[in-house]
Specification:
About 20% of the residues are buried. The chain has a single domain (about 5-115), classed as Heme iron utilization protein-like fold. By secondary structure, the protein is mainly β. Strands 1-6-7-8-2-3-4-5 form an eight-stranded antiparallel β-sheet, covered by helices on one side. It is built from one helix and eight strands, in the order βαβββββββ.
Length: about 120
C-alpha cells in the first residue's frame, strides 16, 4: 500500500483533485488498506453515488465490485506522482500518473492512482 513520500495537501486541494478525477472520468486504480493487515483494490472510474459518497466502480452494473468512501471523514491528504509511491501493486501493465491518498483516523487509507492512458 502507499508508503511513499507524497506531499501533504489541504482538504481543499484534495477536493479539487478528486473533482478532476470525477469530471474528467479518469480511470484509477483504487486501493484500500485497513490498519496494515487488510487491503483491497480495483480499477474503475470515480463518481458520486446516490448516497452522496464517493464510489469507484468499473462500469454501471450494481453487482460489480466497488469501493465506497467518505472523503469528509479523512484526517489527512497526500498527493504525489509515481516517484512518490514506487512500491504500489500495479495489476497487469498499467502505467500510473499520480496518487491522491485519503488518510483516516483509524489508520486506514484510500488511494486513488490515476492511470496514464
Amino acid at each position: 500500500m502507499p508508503s511513499g513520500t507524497g506531499s501533504d495537501i489541504s482538504e481543499r486541494d484534495a477536493a479539487d483533485l478528486l473533482h478532476k478525477l470525477i469530471t474528467e472520468s479518469l480511470r484509477v486504480q483504487a486501493l484500500f488498506q485497513a490498519s496494515g493487515a487488510v487491503a483491497a483494490g480495483l480499477v474503475g472510474h470515480v463518481f458520486i453515488g446516490p448516497d452522496r459518497l464517493v464510489w469507484v466502480r468499473q462500469g454501471e452494473e450494481r453487482s460489480e465490485p466497488f469501493l465506497r468512501f467518505d472523503p469528509a471523514q479523512a484526517s489527512g491528504f497526500k498527493y504525489g506522482d509515481t516517484r512518490a509511491f514506487p512500491d504500489i501493486p500495479i495489476p497487469g501493465n498499467l502505467r500510473l500518473a499520480s496518487a491522491l491518498v485519503f488518510l483516516y483516523p483509524d489508520d486506514s487509507q484510500v488511494a486513488l492512482f490515476e492511470i496514464a492512458e
